[in-house]
Amino acid sequence: MNSKITNRIALSVIIVCAAAMAAILISMLGYILVRGVSSISWHFLTTSASPFLAGGGIKDQLWNSFYVLIITMILTVPIGVCGGIYLAEYAKPGRLTSFIRTCVEVLASLPSIVVGMFGMLVFVNYFGFKYSVFSGALALTVFNLPVIVRVTEDGFNALSLHQKEGGLALGLTHWHTIKTILLPAAFPSILTGVILSAGRVFGESAALLFTAGLSTPDLDFGNWNPSAPNSPLNLFRSAETLSVHIWSVNTGGIMPDVQTIANGSAAVLVIFVLLFNLCARMLGKVINQKFSGK
């Protein structure tokens, strides 16, 4: 009888905690979306921001967010996947492996503001990249790398040992087994983790305040020459992202419609982060069904 009562109490506590988390999430998202969705329009998404006049949009900031994200993922995914494969398949138990895993854990737990300060000291000042897309992408690479490493390692560790043994029994080398058997099998988990981490990077602001900058040139979307100062593809220009723009507008904006811009920008950011998460879930489910043959 006592066991049944204890079980009911534990179940009730778990349900209450889950309901509380869901209610907090729904209330936060609802507050942001209700206040901001009415401000979103095609004009708002395709018009450059104005520092003084009303009616400005978020075209450049939205582009900067995606551009920084793409460069970050180009830098992060190959290094992170290779690091995860090393830890899962090649690293032998010992002090070196324990040290590497400790470094990964420490990097994963660093506050983003600390990563931003590190990026400013190293990438902006020491290497002379200044406030730029490239500096921001490098800082976010440091911020995001541990996530990709852990996702890849966990994806490989979740595989059945028989898959690896089967490849080796057929006479395949270790690397060929990884490339042709283990990596395709772990791909759904890795892809889901990459998309989720992309959503995390897209909404990051603290690390970009000190690396990508608080301003952006008037981008010329008719000029795609990467060396042009106002080209959208220029890696070494300052790039205010959408999340940084929200912070900047809320703290120092002097436009007459500052609240409308802030609410609309926040709603756009939340919508894209939600889309990243939904895409990760859907892609993971589709790929799992494909690999499982269902």
UniProtKB/TrEMBL annotation:
> Where are its TM segments located?
9-34, 40-58, 65-87, 99-124, 261-280
On whether Cell membrane is a keyword of this UniProt record, the answer is yes
Q: Which domain of life is it from?
A: Bacteria
Q: Is-annotated flag, keyword DNA damage?
A: no
Q: Which InterPro entries match?
A: MetI-like (IPR000515), MetI-like_sf (IPR035906), Phosphate_PstA (IPR005672)
Annotated membrane topology: Multi-pass membrane protein
One Pfam family in the UniProt entry = BPD_transp_1
ABC transmembrane type-1 domain residues: 62-280
| Predominant location category | membrane
- Alphabetically ordered keywords of this record: Cell membrane, Membrane, Transmembrane, Transmembrane helix, Transport
Provide the leader sequence positions. Answer: none
Subcellular location, record wording: Cell membrane
* Similarity field: Belongs to the binding-protein-dependent transport system permease family. CysTW subfamily.
Name by which UniProt lists this protein: Phosphate transport system permease protein PstA
To which species is this protein native?
A: Sporolactobacillus shoreicorticis
